[in-house]
Amino acid sequence: MADLARERDIMTIPKVELHVHLNGSISEATASILARRHGADPESALRLVDGRYPGHYPDFQGFLDTYLAANEFVRTPEDLELVAAEFARGQAAQNVVYSEAIFTAMIYVRNGMEPRAMWAALRRGLAAAGPGTGMGIVVDTIRDFGPKEAAATLRLVETADAPIVGLGLTGIEGTVPTASFIPFRAEARRLGLGFEVHAGEMGPPSSIVEAFDVLDADRIGHGVAAIRDPELLARLVRERVVLDVCPSSNVGISEFPTLEAHQMAAFWRAGVNMTISSDDPPFFRTTLTDELRHVVRVAGLDAQDLGELQRRAARHAFAPTGVKDGILGEIERWAAG
Ligand SMILES: [Zn+2]
User: Fold this and answer.
1) What is residue 1's predicted lDDT score, i.e. its pLDDT?
2) Predicted structure pTM score
3) Which of 19, 116, 211, 258 is disulfide-compatible with 244, CB 3.0–4.6 A?
4) What rounded mean pLDDT belongs to the chain?
5) Relative orientation angle of helices 303-315 and 288-299, to the nearest 10 degrees
6) 20: closest CA among 331, 244, 226, 296?
7) How far apart are alpha carbons 10 and 102 in whole angstroms?
8) What average pLDDT does this structure show over 198-204?
9) Whole-angstrom Cα distance, residue 13 to residue 29?
10) Burial tier of 284 (Cβ tally within 10 Å: 0-12, 13-18, 19+)
11) What distance in Å separates the CA atoms of residue 180 and residue 223, rounded to the nearest whole number?
12) Residue % of the chain over a pLDDT of 90
């Protein structure tokens, strides 16, 4: 057996992250600045424990409450620019050469942000990453808010001046019938955008099946429930379905007791076409680099496997072909060096 990928490999590899929420990237420090800016006491308003997000929650709702508490203070374009710039700098610092940031625009519209100013602030903030750090936006709608919210999200996207590469469906599985989002999916196709569906995160394996058979998803967010259904798992492998797996997030909402008990190793061994991401990094006290460390250790990846994981992410990004070829070239240079 080859040696595990070394720390140096993990640090230096050009990284691609496909599943990271911009709204879930607000550090405690930034959220505290924003809370004070809007007259609130950070420690209590943000549900901090010793100045930090808990990192571990009894369930998804527990996480959601903390996430929403932070997002409540992103009210002005200046607030959003600060959040986006922090995200962009964090990605650049980890040598993430391309990110697909999931952005729930409607949260900020509801907070009172004017859409045109919102997109401009997002662009300004993301530019803080500097050249060489690509950014695509996947605008999502929250499942439990239903098809009306999806239609409102779509209107925002149609008038947006932002590097949008995809649409997404997030939120709590099973709350609203999946078929309600067929029009939203069709609009993604009409606009030439990719389509990502969070499924099999807390929901059952059938939720993953619906993501394909009803919504024809290009990528699945999480999909960890597939491990409970061998037939589905075989189908995922056979059809080379892409699962964007976020181990610390699944452990953080108590879907798995520990990283060691997480299914990433079983997925890897079974040949699932998985990629690795951080989801909502500060809320789960992680980073993409940490997630790669976890998968190397738990699934036993060597440097070549690590390269393969990043190539997959690049190939399945919603970015234009030219951008993807550029990223693949960077990974090849890393592998050769
Ligand atoms: Zn997610």
Assistant:
1) 60
2) 0.97
3) 19
4) 97
5) 130
6) 244
7) 24
8) 96
9) 28
10) buried
11) 20
12) 99
Is CATH 3.20.20.140 the classification given to domain 7-336? Answer: yes
Q: Determine the Cα–Cα distance for residues 184 and 141; give it in Å rounded to an integer.
A: 9
Closest among 110, 116, 121 to 22, alpha carbons compared: 121
One DSSP character per residue, 26-60 reads --HHHHHHHHHHTT--HHHHTT-BTTB--S--SSH
Phi, psi dihedrals of residue 265, rounded to the nearest 5°? -70, -40
Choose the catalytic residue: 187, 201, 210, 330: 201
Helix (H) or strand (E) holding 243: strand 242-245
Amino acid at 38: H
Query: CA nearest 252: which of 300, 294, 220?
Result: 294
Residue with token string 């699932």? 272
304: CA distance to ligand 1 center in Å?
A: 27
Active site residue 332: no
Distance in angstroms (rounded) separating the CA atoms of residues 178 and 320:
28
End-to-end CA distance of the chain: 22
What spacing in Å lies between the alpha carbon of 279 and ligand 1's midpoint?
A: 5
- 1 CA from centroid of ligand 1 (Å): 33
**Distance of alpha carbon 74 from alpha carbon 21, whole angstroms:** 14
Element (H, E) at 282: none
Cβ pair 188, 212 in contact under 8 A: no
